[in-house]
Amino acid sequence: MDSMVWLTTTLAITIALLSTFLNTAHSFDGGSGGDTKQQPTLCEELVLPAGYPCSEYVIQTKDGFLLGLQRVSSSSSARIGYYSQESRPPVLLLHGLFMAGDAWFLNTPEQSLGFILADHGFDVWVGNVRGTRWSHGHISLSEKNRYFWDWSWEELAQYDLAEMINYINSVTNSKLFVVGHSQGTIISLAAFTQPEIVEKVEAAALLSPISYLNHVSAPMVLRMVKLHIDQMIVTMGVHELNFKSDWGANLLVSLCDTRLSCSDMLSSITGKNCCFNESRVAYYLEQEPHPSSSKNLNHLFQMIRKGTFSKYDYGKLRNLKEYGSFKPPKFDLSRIPKSLPLWMAYGGNDALADITDFQHTLKELPSTPEVVYLENYGHVDFILSLQAKQDLYEPIINFFKSMGEVSSI
């Protein structure tokens, strides 16, 4: 990068971050309880209007976060169920980074996986990790408190996904299927290395699976990694990462210059997507993106730089305190039971879940997953493609049905 371009871009980013810091520094309240502002629920916004029964649940993680879970049943007029009402197997849907449970309902009922699974007789549970708009804060921390945002995807696996699985298992008294996209796959793979979690899972389908990230090719992401945007954000005390805010939008714009066209912002982040309805982008943006933590982005960028699938790197001295070693421990994919059936789909145009990194993941797994490769799919196609029903969702349903009766616990 030309030094003048680098200086100009860095200056613009610094100004955006300073503006954020000055505008939000007053909001640290020391942790005086959760936010109480009412907002429509996911059920009310997206599921009930489509004619599908939907229930809201709130569960509490071991570290005090309150997560929203939705339970969706089939529309009586659309039901084509394979399973009886009494034997509906539970399936948990896990969204990607800067997304939430609404990701599974953004297209029509005939094109959205959440509705399709319900119509096939599955007991659909929709997960929303901490910090997203459909979750419900913390038992003692306000979202304005910096400690509310002190987590990465590691905690999403250790606490959020673990609690979702435990709760669904306790309600249904059966093992469950898991479907993850992007970040939903990395937290699944990390959680499945833990025997007390994976023993409650019948099988999993992973869309755009990620664990290793050192071959990411997305121009916008690589620009942010090279400029150490994640470290700048954390150092300047910006703990919540919200690209719907004015400063978040300005940050993305400041990363664009004549050498990196941002006329197609989505492709510069995800790779070229072949098959979603571009006329619905404005509608998608009513829901997306959701907030996440700066620490989460920092953790992911650490993995891109280091080529590791490991816990968060605090630096040698704090690593020694936290982990008892100078380097953070790796997540050992070989600990995922060979007996756990896995179905995985990846795309040739996916600039985040790169083919080389995906092959690295496959080599470390003790099992041989069923694999689907879609050459023209980008990262977003896996949840928004108009062809996803035949390309992905029907094969996933057939995979789950091939398991037979779901085991009880």
TrEMBL record:
One Pfam family from the record: Abhydrolase_1
Family as reported in the entry's similarity comment: Belongs to the AB hydrolase superfamily. Lipase family.
InterPro entries membership: AB_hydrolase_1, AB_hydrolase_fold, Lipase_euk
Catalytic center residues: 182, 350, 379
One of the GO BP terms on file: response to gibberellin
Organism for this UniProt entry: Vicia faba
GO-annotated molecular function: triacylglycerol lipase activity
Name of this chain's protein: Lipase
Signal peptide: 1-27
Keyword DNA-binding part of the UniProt annotation: no
PANTHER family tied to this protein: LYSOSOMAL ACID LIPASE-RELATED (PTHR11005)
Gene3D superfamilies: alpha/beta hydrolase
Keywords: Glycoprotein, Hydrolase, Lipid degradation, Lipid metabolism, Signal
Record domain AB hydrolase-1: where: 89-383
Lineage: Eukaryota, Viridiplantae, Streptophyta, Embryophyta, Tracheophyta
